[in-house]
## 1
Amino acid sequence: MSGETASDKTVSSKTVSNEPSAPHVVCDRLVKIFRVGASEVVALQGLEFAVEAGEMVGVVGASGSGKSTLLSVLGGLTSPTAGRVEVGGIDLASLGPADLARYRREQVGFVWQRTAANLLPHLSAAENIAVPLTIGANGNRRSRRARCDELLDLVGLGDRGGHRPVELSGGEQQRVAIAVALAAEPSLLLADEPTGELDSETADAIYELLRSLNRELGLTQLIVSHDPEIATRVDRVVAVSDGQLASERRARTSALDGDTTSDELVTDEVLLVDGQGRLQLPAAALDALGIEGRVTAEVVDGAVRLTKPSEPGEEAPDE
Ligand SMILES: Nc1ncnc2c1ncn2[C@@H]1O[C@H](COP(=O)(O)OP(=O)(O)O)[C@@H](O)[C@H]1O
Ligand SMILES: [Mg+2]
């Protein structure tokens, strides 16, 4: 099934970009500062990031590192203090309130960790899915009904549409949440720890569903996760640290191609260097050299060598 044939809406509003090669998501030196009373919290500090159309990216990082803030900015829920965010070739800062609301409604879907936060408790699964269809006023009641059934099938809940969230398991509730998020046929899905409240077997099944949506609909996905297996589930994992991207790992073989198991999966971790040449050295490297605050950098034989500078009065180490 294709996301485009599934609806009677025009395709143009879903076109990702005029330039086929442009990334779907671009974050350019994003800064987000929250003011709390007299103090400031810097949640994003010059974050640079691009996601290709149809890419499935995992986002990891310690609590408070800025992962949720990044998703909020990408979803148009909060505006950055500085920097630029472009989704599908649209600079979000250029959108007025009405266009931004439309962007949130049509271009992005959200799935949150707390299963209860994703759904209206007094409505059945099918009725929850119908809410965004009604707001978007897509077609008549019959076509909405058909779309609803199609979405339930898509997430593997064809026979559960009549149940209210309380009558569904946690995994089923997240499936409904995914269907709700996809109702308006967004091209980008943002998920903030979607399996955080699920046991590992149920989480596996949710990731399989997300992967099949990625394959079938070409859905670009950003998934914040604490799942240790995340690298085997997505195309690329980026690590956020102190509001910046610090490193990324890419699966050499896509985890779901063939019968590759997580044990066979080879990943390469690289450090990310931003447009200003900044990078974050891994803690292990800092510890190994006892680096604090300063290093010297020189290019030696095609490599950059970082050395702990000698203390004043200390003799330079012998070459
Ligand atoms: N609405 C807010 N008001 C004030 N501070 C916030 C707000 N949202 C997030 N923060 C702060 O910004 C930092 C990053 O938060 P967040 O993006 O939620 O991190 P993560 O999702 O990685 O745990 C944290 O220090 C957090 O306390
Ligand atoms: Mg968070």
## 2
Amino acid sequence: MKMNSTRQLSETQMQTAFKSTKKANAALDLSVKSWFVIALTGQWAFALYILLVYVVSQFVGIELGNVVPAQSFKKADGVDLAFAFLHVIPAAYLSILGCTQLIPALRNNYRAFHRWNGRIFFTLGISGALTGLYLQWGAGFRLSDIGSLGITLNGILIPVAIFFAWKHAINKRFDLHMRWAVHSFLLVNAVWTFRLYLMGWYMVNQGPNGNNSTLDGPADIMLSFACYLLPMALAELYFWSKKQKHSKPIWWATSVMFVGALITLIGVVSAALMMWAPRINMVLQAL
Ligand code: HEM
């Protein structure tokens, strides 16, 4: 009789623990889905900005130097300018379709699309890293040496992460492929995240705070590394928490992931308002 009630008690405890882990996992997934919706909106806003400011502006007679934020673009010509366009314009494709690689339903039901979109993403990602490294160190598109180190490391890590993501896909190690592909995605999008973090930082501090015009202030340097290291750390936290059996660590990870989503939201709103909308408007008004 006593043994039966002890067994019943432990079964009830197990059921409660199971339910609580299930709830925590659902909250974790919600945090990632919230981030995804915010990121997708921000990525498409960035793509719209690239297409209007770097492509459409050329057809409506706007001087590129008057509408793009980068000073180096204003002085560039010949091969360097061609490289600059080759660097920037494919970013529109990456921003429009890159996110779709993360949607499980598309991965499972439209495999050919996932495969081809992935191949294009990886190829353009490597090309973006190499042309970026050339622009920065070959064509002299940099405001300062120290301020360029974060994006330089980013340019070195992109081909490394893509190499592993591609290799694991070919070898059908899809668990490892997904992990490296997510890191490739975050590294390739660091240029977008940097703009989010920089504008978000300005918004939260109501102006510059540790920033300067050559982007080598302490805050600029911190953000130039954080724009890929922080999202990559959050991705690792997510992968780790998916393996947890108890609810407590999953709840902790979920709270951190929600903070990550909030930072992305502040960044998207700030970059859209301060960086992209005014330039998009300039082009639209010239149409
Ligand atoms: C695949 C990853 C990358 C993508 C998708 C990408 C995309 C872009 C885009 C869209 C712009 C124009 C930004 C704007 O108007 O606000 C830009 C500018 C620039 N990128 Fe990249 N980029 C990538 C990686 C890199 C790397 C690794 C470097 C250098 C090591 C780099 C160096 C530059 C430079 C020098 C500029 C122009 C000046 C500036 O805004 O700082 N990019 N990139």
